[in-house]
Write the C-alpha cells for this entry.
Amino acid sequence: MEINELHALFLECSSASTDTRKITKNAMFFALKGDNFNGNVYAKQALQQGAKYAIIDDASYVRSSQTILVKDVLTTLQQLASFHRLYLKTPIIALTGSNGKTTTKELINATLSKKYQTVATKGNLNNHIGVPLTLLLMDKFTEIGIVEMGANHQKEIEFLCSIAKPDYGLITNFGKAHLEGFGGIEGVIKGKSEIYEFLITNNKTIFVNSNDPIQVEKTKQANIFTFGKEANVDVQIGFIEAQPNVKVQYNHLIINTQLIGEYNFTNIAIAIAIANYFKVDDNFIKEAIEAYIPSNNRSQVIQTGTHKIIMDAYNANPTSMRAALLNFEKLNDKIKVAILGDMFELGHEAEKEHQNIVDLASTQLLDKIILIGANFYKTKIVSPKVTTFESFDDFKNNFNLSELEFATLLIKGSRGMALERVLELL
C-alpha cells in the first residue's frame, strides 16, 4: 500500500497508537517491534479493543481487511507522519539541546496556546518514534506544532528533521550530555547543530540566544530571530533574580515564575522570544509563564513532612548537575543536603566528570552530600561532609534518614538511578 493510500485511511482514524493499553476507539495501531516484544502479536487485541486498523509487518498475523501488511512498521510510521506533516502544512517549531528541552517545550506551548491551537510533544516522546507520533496528533485545526527532538548520537537530529521538516528551530544549549554516544563535547555541538544545518539549507528561521557564542557563530548565514540580555537583539529579556524563584523583565513587565534556578532563565527567555515573534500579547505571555508549574521530577519543589525537596531527578549530566548545585548553594535555607545519583552515558569521561562534581560539592556551603551509584562510589572523597553508597539499595539499607530531619534536599541523578524513590523512604 502506498503512503498516500495509507494516509487516506489514517484520516478516518481518531489517533495513532503503539500501545494496546492505551488504545482509543477508531485508532490506527502500529505493531512496533522491540528487543523484548513483538507488536504483531497484539494486532488482534488492538482491533478487539476498538482500533480501526492495525499496521503489521508479519503476514502470519493478517486477520482481516482491518489488518494492513507493510514491509516495516516503524518505517511506515515515520513515512506516514512526514506525509501527514506536509499534507497539513502546519508551521512546526523544533527544538533540541543538552538540557531544558522539555521544560522549554512546555513553556513555549503555554505561551503560544494563549493565541493559537497548538500541539506539542507529550512528555519527552522526542525520539524516532515519539516525533512521528507527535506529528500524527496534529489535525486541520492545529495552527502551530511544537516538536521536541532528543538525540544521543550523530545524525539522529538530522533524521528527525527529515521527518518533521521544521519551519523554525532552536537549541536550548550545548552541554556535557550523552558524551559516550556523541564522542565528547565537540561531538555534542556537531550533533545538536544538525538542526541548524536543516534550517539553513531550507532557508527557515532560527531562534538564537545572543548570549551563547556557539549559537551566534553557527547561525551567521541564517535567518535568525535573536533574544538575550543585551539591547541589540530582537527581544531583550532581563534576568532579575532566582531566589527563591526566577524573576525576569520583559518590556514593561516583571514576570514572577514558579521555576527555581538561574539555569531556567534561558528556557523562559526562549518561550518569551518565540511568543513575541508570533505576536502573542505581552500580558498573555506573562500570565502563561507565571502559571506554569514544573512537574515530572523536573525542578519540582515538594514539601513533605519536615523536608523541603528540590526534586530534579528526571535526568542528569555534568552540565545540569553543576548548575543545580550552584543554584542550591545560593538558597538561604538553614540546612542543605544534596543527594546525587550517577550520571549515565559519559563513556570514558565518566570517572573524571563524577570526580569533578564531587570536588565541586565538597567545596560548597552544604551541610551534607550523599552520593549514590557505582561511579560516585569510585571517586576520591576529601570532605567529611560526603557519604557514598554503591547502590540505591545500599543507601536504603544503611542510611539513617533521621539525619535529614528539617533539611532542604536537592535530589538529582540520571533517569536510570530513579532517585525519586527517596521520596518513598521519607
About this structure: The chain has three domains: 3-72, 90-291, 300-425.
